[in-house]
């Protein structure tokens, strides 16, 4: 059987109308990335995988957005429905983990174990990835069409690499995905976060007294192999075995030419090299998946010893940035895959969702079966103790009586009507994602749980918006916005309402001339609402910098999640009514809450640099719009 590779995946995409070939000449400098960025936002008719056949300055075609839709992810994972993804990883883990106790169990497991044994990687003598070989001084990375994706990037970056390393102690293989900044014809920046396995391998190599860590990078493998590299598999689970399970065929491996590692034989490109354990170099900035530039910092260096590729190789890449992008659809597939794994630790889990606006680690929605008091908090703490999920900034929990997690309007209704800021909000401290620019320190800060599950007697009742004094007549949104704009420091305002009406919230853009402006503005709005009977709307406030667009709820959610550290930036008002039951925090008003999503500066006590949002030049976007139809794309350029 033919080894699955990138080309067979492209053939399937093309057969299903999911791949568009573009023959117009394009540039690696911003243009390809900007086209992919626009395509990812253009709706299902225009959102295609893109193969650019004419790349200026390179003889290699470029494939991008290949995994950028739910349908393309289904094809990559070999399923016909997203619901089938939920059983895929569970089935795999059962086959490698389930104990076989009785003879019947053992006998019954033989076909499964036999199939699993046939999926272990196979070692072959040669493969297409080594049809062309460049070693030593013959290596020239400048020939490869590595993209510069955003204007303030420090240079071209390899954004979809399969990075292979071995544990220096055990020899166990790891396949991760760590971006590589191209410095020159034979050197990359090796960007690996401290929590990742590649960084652990570097630390072990140094502790053993080794001068370097050997690394091999494959670009353009089978879709299942690419996806396995980003999937947060349990420790010790081989990514290539999982890839083989998805594609129902083992991954053929070929030995590298200059390092003691093996790589997928069917890859398009392979980069071999060594990372000195003590050499660091400034890497970045880079327009990252958060939608903001990750700041320049010192990272290790990959000294390239060999570059091999197919004769007619295709460069496989991606662009990451403000959602939605291709990586959002990978994340959605991971979400479905890992629900069964989450249920092993949280048997009450009904459903889970990672909204695109949360960029993987800023927001998780959980739906659980609630059987006892405090269970909503319990599942949140379980998540914070699980691998990469420990970085989750905000966890929202609903129970079986709550709305479906993909019903945004119903979830907003529930939040506005039910949330008691004194009772339902919990802050914790712990590790934070390296790319969380708002945390109080690199890798450390606060996280929050919002428990919207129904009340159990031991938890005490909520005081909801229904308990607030109501105005004598309906609140006119336009009138309220006009009054808010008269307040000092307020540049703009918008009323946010759910479908149910009644309860609401206020989004406000402020001129933050002084660090005190957000807090003073909140107090002004709370006071105004109390005097005018607007509390059902004005008790909940979101504050943004002036000039922020307030008419896009998805964007506001993304900005708010990115720009806050929960414990620091969520303000609550003192409670005027003593709570004798002591069931809720008696120091806080049950409804009033303000969220300061403004930029943080040294004057705020924030000592780290604050990043800027990624945007493409208007001139470039206009040029893309002018050639939109010519490139074969449907509809209008967004």
Question: Can you walk me through this structure?
Answer:
This protein has 638 residues and is an alpha+beta fold. It has 3 domains: 6-80 and 119-317, Roll (Pnp Oxidase, Chain A), CATH 2.30.110.10; 326-459, UbiD C-terminal domain-like (3-Layer(aba) Sandwich); 470-604, UbiD C-terminal domain-like (3-Layer(aba) Sandwich), CATH 3.40.1670. It contains 18 helices and 29 strands. Strands 5, 6, 7, 8, 9, 10, 11, 14, 15 and 18 form a 10-stranded antiparallel beta sheet that branches. A 5-stranded mixed beta sheet has the order 20-21-22-24-23. β7 (162-166) and β8 (173-176) form a beta hairpin. α7 (223-230) packs across α8 (239-247). It is globular and about 80 Å long. The two termini are 43 Å apart.
Count of DSSP strands: 29
CATH architectural arrangement of the largest domain: Roll
Total domain count: 3
Question: Helix coverage percent of residues?
Answer: 25-40%
CATH C-level class of the largest domain: Mainly Beta
Outline the biggest β-sheet. Answer: 10 strands, antiparallel
Beta-strand percentage range: 15-25%
Shape: globular
Q: Could you tell me the mean pLDDT? A: 91
- Enter the CATH topology name of the largest domain: Pnp Oxidase, Chain A
Q: How far apart are the termini?
A: 43 Å
Q: Rg from C-alpha positions?
A: 26 Å
Helix/strand-derived class?
A: alpha+beta
Number of helices: 18
Fourth-level CATH superfamily of the largest domain:
Electron Transport, Fmn-binding Protein, Chain A
**Low-confidence spans: pLDDT under 50, at least 5 residues?**
99-110
